[in-house]
Amino acid sequence: MARKLKIIVTLIALVLIILTITSGKKADNKSSKQETTTELSSDTQAVERTEATTSTEQLIAEDASGSDAAIVADAVTDGGIGDEAAEAETTEEATTEATEEEATTEEETTEEETTEEVTTDEGTTGEVTTEEETTESAEDETDDSLVAGDRIDEIIAGMTLEQKVAQLFIINPEQITPVQTVIAAGTTTKNCLKKNPVGGFVYASKNMTTKSEVQKMLNNTQTYSDEINGFPMFLCVQEEGGSNSVVAGSGLGTKTDSAAEIGATYKTANAKEAGETIGEYLSELGFNMDLAPVADVLNSDGTYMEDRCFGSDPDTVSEMAVAFAGGLEEHGITAVYKYFPGQGFTVSDPQKSIQINDYTYRQLNAQKYLEPYKEAILEDAQVIMITNAAYPYITGDEIPSCLSKEIITADLREKLGYDGLIMTDAMNVSTITKSYTSAEAAVQAIYAGADVVLLPDSYSVAYSGVLKAVQNGDMTEERIDESVRRILEVKLGE
User: Fold this and answer.
1) 102-136 pLDDT per residue, tens
2) Is the pLDDT assigned to residue 46 strictly greater than 80?
3) How many CA atoms lie within 13 A of 245 on its CB side?
């Protein structure tokens, strides 16, 4: 019996030694594996020891039966099963590790490919833009919009009523300076702007001297406005092309064809080119607004507007006006579409005498005379100018359109859905001055829905009239704020 036990113990010892050596070698080979692999190896050894213990118990139980052959056979068989189990588990470990390595490699490869795609062509929209990036981009745009709105709110909140009212006027520089003809801007201009922080200046041929002098005059004026108001002012000129060009007519810009000549080519590209040419030299001089293009449809020959319109076909005029404005805007010049609802069919100049047009709104719409303005609105027109001509079949009386709430608010704002800046035509003309004081005209224009009063006959009287209307309760300060907001949106590019 003792002999049998020695044999059993010896066999068990051999089995354990073989298992230990095998596990040790495999553990050495896997020493560089991750912590998870080490844990799996330890578990395997524990299982092997458990199996060896079980084999020992079986051998002792079988020893009691007195079967030496069975003992030896069981011992050998148990040893083989242990090796096969270890090998199976080792294989499973290797497979698991290989799978993990492949997964890791795939993740790394995916990350590299994503990085490569994202970093390829910096200025181009990537094909692999993630949802997170898209969301961040949308949030950035929303934030920019909110910042712009907040900035305007902050500016308006910091302005006095007097400053707000002054912003509603674009005048000649001579109207607030003690100079007959302004050809420079220095301390006098700066002091005058402090007292009268108007919305803008419009310059005439008499203000044009040399290129360098005009540049200095406009740059100084703009600098003063920034210092005084914290934002720019409109520096305007009428540059339609052809003979209706203040700057080119003074030899300071490249001459271009008239609107009629451009329209006769039926090539929209020519209108765009003219706008770009004009926009380039106006920007170089320091202007930021052009009182052009004329967006009216010509409906008869021999009118005073014949050379200033792009033609009699509404679609052609629409395309040409938008293209011309686009050329200006490429150089930072704000375009002013004029003269809503149209004066391309007026025989005489409404600036010299009241011009009566017998069209109804329905007729204007049916004959597509409003088409250029509809197209301009679709193209986000920043400014539209209202004519001085009268439309009694629309307004019910002979009031100039620039003073009519029916024309400005009911037709342009509500029917056509325009929420941009609305400017009157020049108010220092007999059409206005024969029937209205400067104060009456300015108050009526703002009441009707205009945002900017252009060239009142007397700025000081017009300014005082609007200020008193608010102070007396005839007009609300909120109404003034509406116009100031639109003005700032254009000035600040927001």
Assistant:
1) 444 444 444 444 333 333 333 333 333 344 444 45
2) no
3) 25
Does residue 232 have a cis bond before it (omega within 30 degrees)? no
What's the token pair of residue 143?
Answer: 């934030």
b/e per residue, 357-374, with b = 16+ CB within 10 A?
A: bebebeebbeeebbbbbb
CA dist., res. 401 & res. 391, Å (int): 7
Distances in whole angstroms, Cα of residue 172 to Cα of each of 195, 207, 220, 465, 480 = 15, 10, 16, 19, 22
Q: How confident is the model at residue 305 (pLDDT cuts 50, 70, 90)?
A: confident
How far is the C-alpha of 406 from the C-alpha of 383, rounded, in Å? 19
Query: Which two three-digit tokens encode residue 344?
Result: 């391309």
Give tens-digit pLDDT for 433-481: 999 999 999 999 999 999 999 999 999 999 999 999 999 999 999 999 9
Left (φ > 0), alpha (ψ -120 to 50) or beta: where does 350 sit?
Answer: alpha
Tokens of 167: 């912003």
Going from the N-terminus, what domains does the chain have, and what CATH number goes with each? 2-115 (no CATH), 169-491 (3.20.20.300)
